Amino acid sequence: MAINYNSDITVVLDVQHRTPGNLRAFVQATLRSIKTGKSSNVRFSSTEPIEVIPMSVRKMDYSYKDGDDFVFSDPETFETVNMSADLVGDGKNYLVENGQVTVTFVEGKAIQVELPASVVLTITNAPEGVRGDSANNVMKAATLETGIEIQVPLFIKTGEKVKVDTRTGKYMERA
């Protein structure tokens, strides 16, 4: 959710409700400012009023990388949105051209990119596996088309497509 905190629109990243033994309950929240991009930890009392800012969510396609920014386009209106690398975060390792993502907007400004649970990527470099210890699940390092390296089974070869979990970065299955 997005809230108005100290006349600045912030996105709530994490919330914890705490009830210490001999004190009143409070909410500890991690907020990120949309203007500055900086995060801060804030403590709210249970009676403090909070102004919630409406957010909108749109499905968009990843188009290309423009310098340090990532460009996303709306498949219906073809409107483009540029997002900085720090807003995209680790998701940049799983972005492929025309891959669909969910972009969250607050007051017309893109604030967050949400990837699908898994993506299909092509292996660009997978050295031959060395047989030997085949009694258990043997893995080898392989490089994906986005440049990241993951552990895959020995039978995966260069040029194959694999399904990767975007939350953990682990190999799931052949695609």
Describe the structure.
The protein is an all-beta fold and 175 residues long. Strand 7 and strand 8 form a beta hairpin. It has one helix spanning 85-88, and strands spanning 2-5, 8-18, 26-33, 39-45, 51-53, 55-66, 69-73, 80-83, 100-106, 109-114, 118-125, 139-144, 149-153, 161-165, 171-174. Strands 4-3-2-1-5 form a five-stranded antiparallel beta sheet, with no helix packed on it. The chain has a five-stranded antiparallel beta sheet with strand order 8-7-6-9-10. The chain has a five-stranded antiparallel beta sheet with strand order 13-12-11-14-15, with no helix packed on it.
The major pleated sheet works out as: 5 strands, antiparallel
Q: Please work out how many helical segments DSSP would assign.
A: 1
The number of domains is: 3
Mean pLDDT, as a whole number? 81
Number of strands: 15
The percent of residues in helical segments reads: under 10%
Shape: flat
Name of the level-1 CATH class of the largest domain: Mainly Beta
The helix/strand series, from N terminus to C terminus, equals: EEEEEEEEHEEEEEEE
- The CATH superfamily of the largest domain appears as Nucleic acid-binding proteins
Q: Report strand order across the widest sheet.
A: 4-3-2-1-5
Structure classification? mainly beta
> What distance separates the N and C termini?
35 Å
Low-confidence stretches: none
CATH topology of the largest domain: OB fold (Dihydrolipoamide Acetyltransferase, E2P)
**Rg estimate, integer Å:** 21 Å
Q: Approximately how much beta-strand content do the residues carry?
A: over 45%
